[in-house]
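Supplementary Methods, section 5.1.

A reviewer requested that the exact input to the structure prediction be made available. We therefore reproduce it here, unchanged from the version used in the analyses.
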Amino acid sequence: GMRYKVKNGIWPGLAPLGYLNEPKLRTIEVDPLKAKIVKHAFLLYAEGDKSFADISRFLHKNGVSMRDGRPVKPDYAKKILSHRFYVGIMKYDGEYYDGKHKQFISRDLFNKVQKQIQTPTPQDTTFVPSVESTPIISDDPIRISMDSTLLVWKA
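The structure derived from this sequence is encoded token-by-token as follows.
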């Protein structure tokens, strides 16, 4: 079932923002349009002068919103920017697995964003440091030591 899929590098649930569920192949594929939006959000935040609210507004301007059309909350933008799935790491039932899905966020960019998240911009008043934060990702999966919640995009 689900555990078998995830052990084989296939995400068993709904695809995160920037990806699509491919029902015929039962895989997750890159959504070309939304992947560009997500990547641009990562690039904007990595610049160092953008808040989660800025990223939320950027996402809204580019068609990513709540079901009722309102902009996503800044905390949701933070979850997107912290989502390990973008660098090929899946968390399922408390364990980490290497995903076989195509990645469109480099580990360097992801790590730069994680460092920036730990050093918030002055205008980002919503930032509250947490004990459990997203770790810097290395090519060595053994170095992953902290826990983080994965965000699953629900359209």
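Residues 32-46 form the longest helix (15 residues). These observations are discussed further in the main text.
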